[in-house]
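[scheduler] slot 2 assigned
[scheduler] job type: sequence-to-structure, two independent chains
[scheduler] chain ordering preserved from manifest
[runner] begin chain α
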Amino acid sequence: MSEQAQYTIPGIVIVPAIKRKGRVAALGLAEGEAIGAERLSVLELTHEGIPGDRHAGFLRPADVRVPWFKRGEAIQNERQVSIVSMEELAIIAANLGIERVEPEWLGANLAVEGLPDFSFIPRGTRLFFPSGAVLAVTDQNAPCRIAGAEVERNLSGSDGLALRFAAAAKRLRGVVAYVDRPGIIASGEEFSVRVPEQWVWRG
């Protein structure tokens, strides 16, 4: 089917592919069971994810996010890397009535700047970094009370914040991705974003 024909299908809305630029604002390594991450200036990516990060690996156990699988069953790991937007973290903070939310409090591996409505970047979007590293976006990252508890722990006088976090951060918690091509990501560098052609299928 030709490109022109695709855009004339009755009832189907098709959005052309998009290219954008973003900047790496912060990097983090999430070790152990605690949700928080340690800030780094450089992050190594392999096909298994980030070495030493708790989300690294080709496989992961099924959890509440994928109820169509038996809990704990080994499935493909499409959640190797957690990515958030500094602009959206500022909105979350405003929603909670606090000064700030730092990306490492949420266990984020990568915080970006310059990409409006970042949490709505669709599945299949790829982030291209100067080293040759490529991340492929798979899904939105849903907010939870555990992340809210970590934010509360880092801010004195914010009792009860954990219970309010999920609502305040809904559709603002960023996305998850897997490593499509290994390489290095450095804090402060610019990267390219390629959003694939999108469409809505109503069935």
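[runner] end chain α
[runner] begin chain β
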Amino acid sequence: MNRKISLIHSNHLAQVDYAYASRIPAEMDLLFLAGACPLTKEGIVPESRNVELQAKLCVENLKAALKECGATLEDIAYTRILVATQNQSDLVIAWEAIREEFGDYDVPSTLSGVTVLGYKNQLVEIEAVAAVNKSIE
């Protein structure tokens, strides 16, 4: 049986461009992914202060980690997006770049501005929880 994550929207809350919650069937395995950082294959963050570029690189790295687990973006049940900034406009830029990569899959997400992230020059990081159908071993 192919079980999928259900995205839950609300008719009683503000209409937003993300689901308010997600439901994972009990028969699925949960994946807790480390924060996807804007690292190149050489393990460095590009020196650019371009939030959009870093957000897209984070998504590419997130997709690669998901692939290693046999999953895709549509297997994600929740994300937390961290942006090292004091400017709300940078949050919006990161959000829009990441939402574009997810397409119509409007996974529940939290978007936060933070003071600093772990790597030199790092502006964006994406944490994710995903769920996949259990393997039959």
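[runner] end chain β
[qc] chain β: The first strand starts at residue 6 and ends at 8.
[scheduler] slot 2 released
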